[in-house]
Design brief:
The structure holds two protein chains of two kinds.
Chain A: H1 3-7, E1 13-16, E2 27-30, H2 34-40, E3 45-49, H3 55-63, E4 67-70, H4 78-87, E5 90-93, H5 98-110
Parallel strand pairs in A: 2-3, 3-4, 4-5
Antiparallel strand pairs in A: 1-5
Helix pairs in contact in A: 2-3, 3-4
Chain B: H1 7-16, E1 35-36, H2 41-51, E2 55-59, E3 65-70, H3 71-80, H4 87-90, E4 92-93, E5 98-99, H5 104-114, E6 118-122, E7 128-133, H6 134-145, H7 153-159, E8 179-183, H8 193-204, H9 209-230, E9 234-240, E10 244-251, H10 259-263, H11 272-276, H12 284-291, E11 294-299, E12 305-312
Helix pairs in contact in B: 1-6, 8-9, 9-12
């Protein structure tokens, strides 16, 4: 699924989308334990988390996740957004809980 | 080792008659602890000390048998050699070996004539797949006979660690390093710099995407361990070979106190503050093992940790 289509979702607020972002989002993952995310998050994922610090960008780069959603109306740290620019990772936030957000994303990707 | 036939030999001989058709592969210690030809003797010595063994096969890069190196050879080095010499220069060449499909009879015949401490075992493709010693045979027999045989407990402990993989011990030349990165920051938020830089480097060398992914995940975990746990700086090296990528990570910090525990999923010594950030899930070492094709880790308290991971391309 194209990132533009995901960005149109009313439950997501775009924090940052890299220019010329051409990765397709194929699947999702949720988790806050970085090693668990490392193990289970697949390439071309959208990752729903509560972690806001800069390291989530490195985790995305390593696992091949292309977008991160921060749940519960939390905010990314400023240096996280800066790192996302360097690493070309899309960032969104949502007022929903991680559970609700995942449910909506699941249906969205499944019906794509 | 030309000694008179002792009680152990007599016992092995006696009991073996009952089990002559048993195959060596059922008895041998596998995977074996081995070193490559180019391993420096100082590392050979360390491996013997840490693994508490008195000798081991020396293999070529293709895992073929090259020789055998033992404590006796190391003693000779003390007399007239240098510990910077390579295993290949001091090993016993053309060692007697057994095939994994040989029976106990072949061992007995070899032992009758030669009485060596250990015999490398090779498979059909001539790769070294195990080591068999008299004690292995005795132990196996006693187990078979239903006796509780408490044999050198320390050796059992070190050899049966879950993660014990083929210890290549291969040393890397400074000139052969394809990628090097110094891990010299202390902030956990920065973990992943080395792993992501390595990922970009490997992709630029046209290593397949799925291999690069495995390498960078395992490297990320090792990097996190250095930053969170070692209390020291560390360094990452990577070598690209024909059929595999090898990653080394070293630190000079406090080491791992209990490796069995550390390998267990969910076990972590990370502080609460670190855990809040999502680290310290107790999955670092298990993930490294899972995503690498072979992993070796050497550590003792206050001597740092050396990790070597191999990924087939």
């Amino acid at each position: 699924m194209k990132i533009e289509k995901i960005a149109q979702c009313d439950f997501l607020e775009t924090v940052f989308i890299p220019e010329n972002f051409d990765s397709e989002i194929l699947i999702g993952h949720t988790g806050d334990l970085l090693s668990e995310v490392m193990r289970n998050c697949q390439e071309n994922s959208i990752w729903v988390t509560h972690q806001s610090h800069q390291n989530i960008i490195a985790v995305s780069e390593v696992t091949g996740a292309k977008a991160i959603v921060i749940a519960e109306n939390l905010n990314f740290n400023a240096d996280t957004v800066e790192s996302a620019k360097d690493a070309s990772i899309a960032l969104f936030k949502t007022k929903l809980s991680a559970f609700e957000c995942c449910g909506k994303l699941y249906n969205l990707l499944k019906n794509d | 080792m030309a000694e008179e036939k002792n009680d152990v030999d007599k016992l092995v001989e006696m009991l073996s008659k009952v089990f002559v058709n048993i195959k060596i592969k059922d008895i041998m210690t596998s995977p074996p602890i081995v070193v490559t030809e180019e391993t420096k003797l100082k590392y050979v010595k360390d491996i013997m000390r840490i693994k508490k063994i008195s000798g081991m096969p020396v293999i070529t890069r293709n895992q073929n048998l090259s020789g055998i190196i033992s404590i006796e050879d190391i003693i000779k080095v003390y007399d007239s050699g240098s510990f910077n010499d390579r295993a290949v220069n001091w090993m016993t060449k053309n060692p007697v070996f057994l095939n994994e499909d040989d029976t106990l009879m072949s061992f007995l015949e070899a032992n009758e004539k030669l009485n060596y401490g250990r015999y490398p075992v090779i498979n059909r493709n001539k790769k070294v797949v195990g080591v068999v010693t008299k004690l292995d045979i005795l132990e196996w027999m006693f187990k078979k006979l239903g006796y509780i045989y408490v044999h050198d407990q320390r050796r059992e402990e070190t050899l049966n660690k879950r993660f014990t993989s083929l210890l290549t011990g291969e040393q890397y030349e400074e000139t052969r390093i394809d990628f090097r990165y110094d891990i010299d920051y202390e902030s956990v938020e920065m973990v992943g710099i080395a792993a992501t830089k390595l990922k970009k480097f490997l992709l630029s060398k046209y290593i397949k995407n799925d291999v690069v992914r495995k390498v960078s995940i395992a490297t990320y975990e090792a990097e996190a361990n250095i930053v969170i746990h070692s209390g020291s700086k560390g360094v990452l090296y990577c070598l690209i070979n024909n059929d595999h990528v090898k990653v080394f990570l070293e630190d000079y910090g406090k080491g791992i106190e209990n490796l069995d525990k550390a390998m267990k999923e969910g076990f972590s010594t990370a502080t609460e503050k670190i855990r809040e950030k999502g680290f310290g899930a107790g999955m670092g070492l298990p993930n490294m093992k899972r995503f690498s094709d072979r992993m070796t880790l050497i550590s003792s308290p206050n001597k740092g940790v050396k990790v070597e991971m191999l990924f087939y391309i």
